[in-house]
Design goal:
The chain is an alpha+beta fold. It is built from 6 helices and 8 strands, in the order αααβαββαβαββββ. A hairpin with an 8-residue loop joins strand 7 and strand 8.
């Protein structure tokens, strides 16, 4: 075979490849979705003004497991929220200097509760929930937990803690949460109608510093039962059950 014929064959093959490539590019450019996947994130993407990407899942496996448990134990009139900012639940008091307020706010701004239970009617807070896994055994996490518990206590927000487990006892979780959810039922009875009884001791509301008064629910599941209620209701809905 002469070099001329061999050259013509090579030229024909190259020409065919070029034509095929042009046809393919034209098809891609005129398709409804002319996009392709990049192999690697280039430098321009990494340093762009919005260098973000979508998270795969909102909850960890442990959180999803406990969320399933909560859906089984809470009443229908209670709403469960997940990953709620602490700063959306509690806030520094107003009677502070701007510097002190900002310092206190910075301590909670980057923290969140695993779950939050609220009344469906007005989204008033019932209690916050934290799950404790192995990472909570470190000194840093223990310090965070102590701070969060004290902060919630000072703000009058109940905080329930549960250890992470492979399986949960539904009855145990329901019983542990009943301390807070039953109080929310009492609060509902409070709003439906109450009668005040004689006070036998002086008590101050830990949430707003108003006087607490002993009351008796007239309606609802707790009708006839006495409880301590803030005298500033409905502005302040803090209540305490009376154990008899």
């Amino acid at each position: 075979m002469s070099w001329t014929i061999l050259g013509l064959i090579v030229f024909a093959v190259l020409a065919a490849l070029v034509v095929l490539k042009l046809v393919q590019n034209k098809t891609d450019a005129t398709s409804e979705y002319p996009y392709h996947k990049e192999g690697l994130l280039n430098k321009t993407d990494a340093t762009s003004e919005y260098p973000y990407q979508k998270q795969g899942l909102l909850f960890s496996p442990a959180e999803r497991s406990f969320l399933s448990v909560l859906s089984q134990v809470v009443r229908e009139d209670i709403q469960v929220f997940g990953k709620v900012r602490v700063a959306d639940v509690i806030t520094p008091r107003k009677n502070m200097s701007r510097r002190e307020w900002q310092k206190a706010f910075n301590k909670i701004s980057a923290k969140h509760f695993d779950f939050l239970l609220c009344e469906k009617t007005d989204v008033s807070i019932i209690c916050a929930i934290e799950l404790d896994d192995k990472s909570h055994q470190s000194n840093r996490r223990k310090s965070r937990e102590t701070f969060l518990e004290n902060a919630c206590r000072s703000a009058g927000v109940p905080l329930a803690r549960f250890p992470v487990r492979a399986t949960y006892n539904i009855s145990e979780i329901k019983k542990a949460l009943s301390e807070y959810t039953s109080s929310s039922e009492t609060a509902k009875s409070f709003s439906e109608g109450i009668c005040q009884t004689d006070e036998t001791e002086k008590k101050i509301c830990p949430k707003c510093s108003s006087k607490m008064v002993k009351r008796k629910a007239r309606k609802g599941a707790h009708a006839g039962k006495e409880f301590w209620g803030c005298s500033s209701y409905p502005k302040c809905k803090y209540i305490e059950p009376i154990n008899t």
